[in-house]
Amino acid sequence: MVTDRVGDFIIRLKNAGAIGKPKVMVPASKHVEEIAHKLKALGFVAGVEKSKEPYHFEVTLAYDERGRHKIRGVKRVSKPGRRLYAPTTEAHTVKNGSGARLLSTPKGVLSDAEARKQHVGGENLFEIW
Question: What is the extent of the structural domain holding 93?
């Protein structure tokens, strides 16, 4: 049983990309699916689709023109034992804009740039670059 679904999800993506897998099977959750769609919009994954297997969905990984995985690193900020929240003023960029910080806000899962633009804060989920 996994207690940290978000942490499990981002580590599955990172590890699968490290060995060059084209797709990853992930246990389904509305919150994790929303994060996957946001990562697709940011360009870190190529696609998100329902799986034939029940209670799972597939994430197609994105690679650059040289065949390197687009996810270079991830850092889990808020954990189940220690939730960290950030107001709008603290939603800073990651790696000088080459990465993104995902926040769980009342308006859904947003990147740091979207949170600043919409003037909302929320739980710092993780940083990805």
Answer: 74-128
CA separation, residue 54 to residues 26, 48, 51, 86, 128 (Å): 11, 15, 7, 35, 28
Other CB atoms within a 10 A radius of the CB of residue 7 amount to 17
> In this structure, what token pair is assigned to residue 34?
């929303």
Helices 5-19 + 30-42 axis angle, to 10: 40
pTM for the model stands at 0.91
pLDDT per residue as tens digits for the range 78-114: 999 999 999 988 777 787 777 999 999 999 999 999 9
Residues 47 and 90 in one domain: no
Please indicate, yes or no, if residue 69 is contained in any of the structural domains.
no
Q: Is residue 68 part of a domain?
A: no
Same domain, 86 and 56: no
Q: Which helix (H) or strand (E) holds 41?
A: helix 30-42
Number of domains in the chain: 2
Token couple for 4? 């940290």
CA 9/CA 11 separation, integer angstroms: 6
User: 65-75 pLDDT, tens per residue?
Assistant: 999 999 999 99
